[in-house]
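Database export, one record per block. Field names are fixed; values are copied verbatim from the stored entry.
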Amino acid sequence: MDPACKLRLRNVSKMFRTARGGTVQALTPVNLDIPAHRFVSIVGPSGCGKSTLFNIISGLTEPGTGEILVDGKTVNGASGIVGYMLQKDLLLPWRTILDNVILGMEIRGTPKREAKAKALPLLRKYGLGGFEHSYPSQISGGMRQRAALLRTILYDRDIILLDEPFGALDAQTRALMQEWLLDLWDDFKKTILFITHDMEEAIYLSDEVYIMSARPGSIKAHLRIDLERPRKPTIVTSKRFVELKEEALRILSAESLKAYDQEKAV
């Protein structure tokens, strides 16, 4: 196995039983090789199995077939191997922002005083200084997402799964969060897998983009994003960015149409 390959999926599939006793094939065999310290986005039509794939990687769901390897070791069904953040921030309303951010460290056994000492400089560096003792209800949606991302980063896993973390934010806040996430990724050198429905966001953030097919989900296309880093927001108007976006949308549109036809047939 390539030592630079951080995460590998081999022939991973999943089938679910329906309430009526039938079955639904969510994923057909998926194969992925994710190098260390890469930013990789996964895009696909609704219902194609993106979140199922993340649940399998995180150990929340067992694959029907296949193997998940981290650093060459099989981790099927093992929890706690990766950091995982959903679209909702899931901050605990009775805990302050600081206490929410250190939650993962506490779960891993870090003493509270030590966890706070590690988290406080990061809160200040990444735009949450002065809000350490506020509660989630007292800060904006963008700030809550920052806190949730910091909590995920400080759980201290090499691989971070982000399932549409900016999907509920307005366009301006979303753009700011994209810049903030790239800074965080560059500073901490994590391997990030990112689910989004926004192709422009996927291309702007990523080193690679995987496009999934309509259900049953499989890898339809793999795009290498050959845009220089660091990236500025104006890159979205460049010729190469537009070419990549057009190619990706052409593939995604065909799969989205298939997904729509599947929904109509139900």
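Remark 1: The mean pLDDT is 92.
Remark 2: Residues 101 and 151 are 4 Å apart (CA to CA).
End of record.
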